[in-house]
Specification:
The protein is α+β, with helices and mostly antiparallel strands. The protein is about 20% helix and about 45% strand. A hairpin with a 2-residue loop joins β1 and β2. The longest helix is centred in the middle third of the chain and has 16 residues.
Length: about 160
């Protein structure tokens, strides 16, 4: 297999060197990976054309450098990524918002979030302060992925 890198960036994320690499694995098969320089993958997005691969590269670069995330995250993005990969602060489609709202009984979003929304009641992972949940919010008819949050009233 002849892998051809089409774009590569070296950045620092949480004080560690990270490589964001976009490559054509085979005709019509592209992969964009954010990984620590030691090889541990942070995120992987597969696409079918170079334009989508470069958009995925820009998306991961924004995510790991703390820049605004371009574009609205849709069900098509979710299906393409094979795993939910909207970035904190990214606008999402109403369909994505509703899918998360309907998948499990929601938890109340902490008042400190400063917006209307909910937490998906299935924890994504835990940290030293407790369970972290996907958080979603809405404002003025627009919907957003807020990132991971602790549930209100949880011991921290």
């Amino acid at each position: 297999m002849n892998i051809c890198t089409i774009k590569r960036d070296h950045i620092t994320y949480k004080g560690r060197p990270v490589i964001i690499d976009t490559a054509e694995l085979a005709p019509g098969q592209f992969e964009t990976v954010a990984m620590y320089s030691g090889g541990h993958d942070l995120s992987t997005i597969t696409t079918k054309d170079q334009a989508a691969a470069l958009a995925a590269h820009a998306n991961l670069l924004a995510r790991y450098t703390g820049q605004p995330v371009p574009g609205q995250y849709t069900m098509e993005d979710w299906s393409r990524d094979r795993d939910f990969s909207a970035l904190p602060g990214q606008e999402i489609s109403e369909e994505v918002f509703d899918e998360w709202l309907d998948c499990l009984p929601p938890l109340s979003i902490p008042r400190s979030a400063g917006c209307c929304g909910f937490l998906c009641s299935e924890p994504v992972r835990h940290d030293s302060a407790g369970a972290l949940y996907h958080a979603f919010g809405s404002s003025n008819g627009r919907f957003y992925y807020l990132g991971l949050m602790h549930a209100e009233g949880e011991e921290q």
